[in-house]
Amino acid sequence: MADGLAISDESGRITDCNPALAALLSQSADEIIGKQLCDVLDCTCWDQEGPGDGKSLVLAGEDSGNVHNATIVCKTGMDLMMPVSHLPFVKDGKQRSHLTVVYIIQAHSVQQAQTDFVSTVSHELRTPLTSIKGFADTILRAGDRLDASQQKRYIGIIKEQADRLTRLVEDLLAVSRLESRKLQLTIRAIELEPAVKRVILNLTDKAENHQIATRLPAGLPSVWADADRLEQILTNLIDNAIKYSPPKTTVTISARSIAQNPEDIEREMVEFSVADQGGGIPTDQLPEIFNKFSRLDNPLVRQTEGTGLGLYITKSLVLALGGTITVDSERGSTTFTVRLPAATLEEQAARGRG
Prior knowledge:
By secondary structure, the protein is an alpha+beta fold.
């Protein structure tokens, strides 16, 4: 197997290992066997007063087999942080040895994902920073030779790119909070129609060349959601629909109340959809659009500013609120549909919020 394996006795001495661990440590199996496990793997599971020449493993109850990070001490002098777990071998009711697993594939996948993330973020930061630096240098070097209109245009470009940087940083902070589960949510009953109207008003300038149509029926139940996060979801979806639709087309926001389960009519959901009249999303790219930094490879998308984080954040927020999001697309139309729990009168009374 590709992951590293080591067997150690009750004194912590390695009695066997597999080729994957030997390759990771840049040593032969013969060099590794006989060493103390704590000499090649530094973690928090050692008993300082263990028997033998080294430290022994102390794993009890629920801690046994848990995956945790440890530092792998390589012969080359390079220390690698990798996930490991220790599994006790028990005979006659007593722990006689341990199997230590070093998850090489998992560590490589995480490191590759981190590398790709840093590379992509660096690229996204470099583009606006290059514009800001270039136009700032031009103003400083030749400001007295530029007329007022040129200076105003250059300063406007600097501001636009600074705003772009701000949005990128805000998106990265949102991703960090979502992935670390530190997102603070204040869940309450929220009426959907006023939230939609506020978002449309905030996007008035961007939508000046588009028609915005709403189909929100009277008597629509409120939704259980965080007000700010609900508006963030609506903003991302409506803003995308505007950006990726040709001028003079219509963006339609509609909603309805549905039963989450046809046999359970008391558990209602509120469903809202944002539909555009853009070029559509190719079928083979639909599974990827909610991934981080995912952007479609077509001319309209390439010429439209974006970080590729909006839909990833949107889906994460929807899931955090206990809902679902789906997308349907064909040439000339794309529809994103979100379902969130409805705040029915019965549920509000049950939660003491009626």
